[in-house]
Design brief:
The chain is an all-alpha fold. Among the domains are: 60 residues, Homeodomain-like (Arc Repressor Mutant, subunit A), CATH 1.10.10.60; 94 residues, Tetracycline Repressor, domain 2 (Orthogonal Bundle). Helices cover 63% and strands 0% of the residues. It is built from 10 helices and no strands. Helix 1 crosses helix 4, helix 6 packs across helix 7 and helix 8 runs antiparallel to helix 9. The N and C termini lie far apart (77 Å).
Length: 225
């Protein structure tokens, strides 16, 4: 005879940890990383967690509540501006971390500033960034301008990077070379110049544009402040 059976309850399959709100949110993030946010449904999430859909509703009220928790989870992964560093260096740390986190969770970028019921990680993150800018001597109004510009750059770059048809410098060069073969250089001289004299030069890496753009933005904000 076999050993004692393990009961499969409404809150989880055999051998699984009991279902909780935290486990629902973590499972939703895992699933969204795999399939995106739009296809994510309660039924698919239940299957991913090995539970019934009704079991999920014992812990969350709706998909919107799940998305609130997912966004809070993503914010919690972003490193806060180190308080011991000057504001530009600290914002640089935070912005680089945000870019890396959004690369892991590309579905999250369009949702980061859409939640009307923000969680503690969202609120804590915004408070820390605002505090960093204020410690740097920026006025309240300038802090608002700076925060909007910084996140427009970070989120915009994350969206652009996620949509690129290449991942490495080598792939970028191959894509650029193939595209260059498809258009006459004399008809598009400026595009050809940039392609052959910059993109196809060994060592070109589109990812480096992030640090260049961020430094340019922070320097401009410091000068204006």
């Amino acid at each position: 005879m076999g050993g004692p059976s393990r009961r499969r309850g409404a809150d989880g399959g055999a051998g699984r940890a009991p279902l909780s709100q935290e486990r629902v949110i973590a499972g939703a993030v895992e699933l969204a990383d795999a399939i995106g946010i739009d296809p994510l449904t309660i039924r698919k999430l239940a299957a991913h967690l090995g539970v019934t859909p009704m079991a999920i509703y014992h812990h969350v009220a709706s998909k919107e509540e799940i998305v609130d928790g997912m966004v809070d989870t993503v914010f919690a992964e972003i490193e806060l501006p180190p308080p011991a560093q000057d504001w530009k260096a600290a914002i640089r740390v935070r912005s680089r971390s945000a870019r890396a986190v959004l690369a892991r969770h590309p579905w999250a970028t369009p949702l980061m500033e859409t939640r009307t019921n923000p969680g503690p990680a969202v609120l804590g993150h915004h408070d820390a960034v605002i505090g960093c800018l204020r410690r740097g001597g920026l006025s309240v109004a300038m802090t608002a301008h700076a925060y909007a510009l910084i996140d427009a750059f970070v989120y915009g770059f994350a969206l652009q990077e996620a949509g690129l048809p290449f991942d490495t410098p080598e792939e970028a060069a191959a894509v650029a070379a193939a595209m260059a073969e498809g258009f006459p250089a004399d008809a598009y001289p400026h595009l050809a110049e940039l392609t052959f004299e910059h993109v196809l030069v060994p060592g070109y890496d589109f990812a480096a544009e992030f640090d260049y753009g961020l430094d340019l933005l922070l320097d401009a904000l410091a000068e204006r402040a």
